[in-house]
UniProtKB/TrEMBL annotation:
Primary subcellular site in the record, as a coarse category: membrane
High-level lineage: Eukaryota, Metazoa, Ecdysozoa, Arthropoda, Hexapoda
One cellular component (GO) term of this entry: vacuolar membrane
InterPro entries: AA_transpt_TM (IPR013057)
Protein name: Amino acid transporter transmembrane domain-containing protein
Xref: Gene3D superfamilies: Amino acid/polyamine transporter I
Keyword terms: Membrane, Transmembrane, Transmembrane helix
One function term, GO molecular function aspect: L-amino acid transmembrane transporter activity
Record bears the keyword Transmembrane helix: yes
Pfam families from the UniProt entry: Aa_trans (PF01490)
Transmembrane feature ranges: 86-108, 150-169, 189-206, 213-235, 255-273, 285-309, 329-352, 398-418, 439-457
Start and end residues of each Amino acid transporter transmembrane domain: 56-457
Top-rank taxon, per record: Eukaryota
Length: 484
């Protein structure tokens, strides 16, 4: 999971539930898109003008895309199947995976085409969204800057939300282990969230990508080991599939959809990977890097979700590692490895929103206060994410809410809008099929957004109420014991 710093520009190599950084993000959102007038008679060919210092091979790009998608989110898939059932979960995973893949496809395709109009060799996600409006219908061109800015901020919010999920992952896994071996010192999940504050504040003060690379490498090794141990337990003594629900209640489907989107969606990493390819023409098409990678991802996610739910049923938790046996050292070691892997990944994830925030503030602050400002902002951001995680420590609901609000908007709705705007004057196909297709994706994303958010927030409120009732009961019990 490599990271480099190139003249102040950073790029994503990984996002889902794990975030890695790569090189060459394309152009940052501060770049203008150039003249709309056709100056040269010869069509501009972006691929011929790309100057990547260390381009990735086709196989290397496939590995990058796989690594970015196969993160800790895969361990949340059994919980997603709990909200769908075995049969509907298997079919739904394929459908959602296909739609996510198609949205990535249209985003990359649009980027490659607007690069011709803008005469730029490559573009990032936000730049592509802005350029689609800039070179789209005349009435929509004034919205180009808004589209760029919105995407920039949406990406930042997406990563910040994932940070909160990471903290809950860490807290719950540590709690499971320590409660078993030190039962006399049982602490709440909220307390464990708070205990992560000091190490996270310290590790997030690292600003040089070069020093974050070892953390990424360690996290990858730990995740692989943890995944192997988890699969060992899942496939041991599998029950009869007939014992599990085949199709869950319709009211639970939005939570399934938003969880799958959160786990699978890697929209933030796609453009950096494509921009770094030695032969970017191999990214799309059949078989193509995108299709091969997403076929593997969808298959593995479906496999883990299906058999994880078959193994643990409705008792499955937000991360399937939390269902591993409490009395076995191997199982407990997997939980610790998972917590440490997420802890080391946190700083990489944190780098992305900090880069965007600092890019907006850097020129407004005196140079002599840069260090102090950086330390303050980084500390406050970590404190904020820890506080939010502690306020709503239910991992499954938090993942669903993050997927519903951020990734359904960024991964589904945004590409659908961009594709429609880009093709409005270029042709929407026979009987406007592209328009109808994008309307369907847009409606699906809005359903995931509103229904998924409603179900997640409702669950959080109920959970919050249960916690308060439990605290009140414990307080009354303590007072009675004192009086007696």
């Amino acid at each position: 999971m490599g990271k480099e710093e190139k003249k102040g520009t950073i790029v994503l190599e990984n996002f889902n539930s794990t975030a890695n950084l790569a090189t060459n993000p394309g152009f940052q959102s501060t770049l203008s898109l150039g003249s709309k007038e056709i100056i040269n008679e010869k069509e501009y060919k972006p691929f011929e003008h790309r100057n990547v210092a260390h381009p990735n091979s086709t196989i290397g790009s496939l590995v990058h895309l796989l690594k970015s998608s196969l993160g800790s989110g895969i361990l949340a898939m059994p919980a997603a199947f709990k909200n769908a059932g075995l049969a509907f979960g298997a079919i739904g995973t394929i459908i959602v995976g296909f739609i996510c893949t198609h949205c990535v496809y249209v985003l990359v395709k649009t980027s490659q085409e607007v690069c011709v109009d803008a005469k730029k060799p490559s573009m990032g996600f936000a730049e592509t969204c802005g350029a689609a409006f800039e070179f789209g219908p005349k009435r929509l061109r004034p919205w180009a800057n808004f589209a760029r800015t919105f995407t920039d901020y949406a990406l930042t919010c997406t990563y910040l939300a994932a940070l909160c999920v990471y903290i809950v992952f860490i807290a719950e896994n540590f709690k499971e282990v320590l409660d078993e071996y030190w039962p006399e010192y049982k602490l709440s999940v909220e307390t464990y969230c708070a205990l992560t504050l000091v190490p996270l504040v310290l590790i997030c003060q690292i600003r040089n990508l070069k020093w974050l690379v070892p953390f990424s490498a360690i996290a990858n090794v730990l995740l692989v080991i943890c995944f192997g141990i988890t699969m060992y337990y899942i496939f041991s003594d599998l029950p009869n599939p007939a014992e599990r629900e085949m199709v869950a209640k319709v009211t639970q489907w939005p939570l399934f959809m938003s969880t799958v989107i959160f786990a699978m969606e890697g929209i933030g990493v796609v453009m950096p990977v494509e921009n770094e390819m030695a032969k970017p023409q191999h990214f799309l098409g059949c078989p193509g890097v995108l299709n091969v990678a997403m076929t593997i991802v969808i298959s593995l996610y479906g496999l883990v979700g299906f058999f994880g739910y078959m193994k643990y049923g409705d008792d499955v938790r937000g991360s399937v590692t939390l269902n591993l046996p409490q009395d076995e050292v191997l199982a407990q070691s997997a939980k610790i490895l998972m917590a440490l892997a997420i802890l080391f990944t946190y700083s990489l994830q944190f780098y992305v929103p900090m880069e965007m925030i600092w890019r907006k503030l850097e020129n407004r602050i005196s140079v002599r206060y840069h260090d102090l400002t950086q330390i303050t902002i980084r500390t406050l951001a970590v404190v904020g994410s820890v506080a939010l995680a502690a306020a709503f420590p239910d991992l499954e609901l938090f993942i669903g809410l993050s997927g519903a609000i951020f990734l359904s908007t960024l991964g589904l709705l945004t590409p659908a809008i961009v594709d429609t705007v880009h093709n409005w004057d270029r042709g929407l196909g026979f009987l406007y099929w592209k328009l109808w297709k994008n309307l369907f994706i847009g409606i699906m994303s809005l359903i995931a957004l509103f229904a998924g958010s409603y179900v997640s927030i409702k669950g959080m409120v109920e959970k919050f109420g249960e916690i308060h009732v439990e605290i009140a009961n414990n307080t009354l019990s303590t007072m009675n014991d004192t009086i007696v």
